[in-house]
Amino acid sequence: MSPPALARVLRALLAGCALLAACGASAGPDAVAPPSVPGQTTVGGIKYSGKLTQGGWLRGVAPPGTRAVTLGGKPLALAPDGAFFAAFDRDAPPSVQLSVTAADGFGLAMPLAITPRSWRIETIDVAKRPGKMPDAAFRERRAAELKQIGAARALRSDVGGWRQAMIWPASGRISGAFGAQRIYRGEPGAYHGGVDLAAPAGAPIMAPADGVVVLAAADAAFTLEGHLLIVDHGMGLASAFLHCSDLVVHVGDRVAQGQLLGHVGMTGRATGPHLHWALTWQGGRLDPQLFAPAGR
């Protein structure tokens, strides 16, 4: 493709992404997802779909002859057919730059508008309690666990779960929303990095999309996460399932959407049986409610 032709295609992509962003109205206090273009849209030969909002995502296909695609300076992996995946952290800025470079070096950068979200913030008029100082044994064990988690999240598998519309991994009401946070006399606590599903103990946990198991703490429960399972869906998108009672899959297993992974429990730091489902992409935390069907 010649540089002028690619430029026309890239400008069409810019117009299409702007249209997609414009379709997302500002979210209200209890909103889960702003309106978005349903299904897939074609603009100037570019096919794309997504929810351009904090905690959301974008799937697209780069024009033929594309050498590189970056989002906010981060390189995006391209599938053989030119398809790519990108996502937006809970605290993503209101605009992020998408850049496309052709094989001959010709390129175009375009800003994408990211719709802000109104998170459930609880202000508490008490000072944040300092955590109990962990002993040396706990610190050593926790450091090893975090190292395992980091190594698992860094793995990249040749699997296409990132292309799929996800399903809910378990049935149950949402007892903990993504992004919720407490403020203690002006000092913010950590926000909730996933969704909690109030499923009963022993309820099945199903794969929300195709993937490869990259971490399975089946024998020794982690201190906080309990029996933790991480599934890589490809392109850097990964699911984590916390507090499981048991796991029925192992590291290296390829799993299909809907396949049994384990069962709901309350292992690790949990006050009752539930499933904590977290989604991440390139270190950013995403809202699972923007990936799974709204109706439950």
Explain what this protein looks like in three dimensions.
By secondary structure, this protein is mainly beta. The protein has 2 domains: 3-113, Immunoglobulin-like (Sandwich); 121-290, Glucose Permease (Domain IIA) (Distorted Sandwich). Helices cover 13% and strands 34% of the residues. The chain is built from 2 helices and 22 strands. The chain has helices at 3-22, 136-154, and strands at residues 41-43, 46-51, 57-61, 66-71, 74-76, 83-87, 95-102, 107-113, 121-124, 174-176, 181-184, 187-188, 195-197, 204-206, 211-216, 227-232, 237-244, 246-247, 254-255, 260-263, 275-281, 284-286. Strands 10, 13, 15, 16, 17, 19, 21 and 22 form an 8-stranded antiparallel sheet that branches. Strand 2 and strand 3 form a beta hairpin. It is globular. The N and C termini lie far apart (45 Å). The model is unreliable at 12-38 and 41-45 (pLDDT under 50).
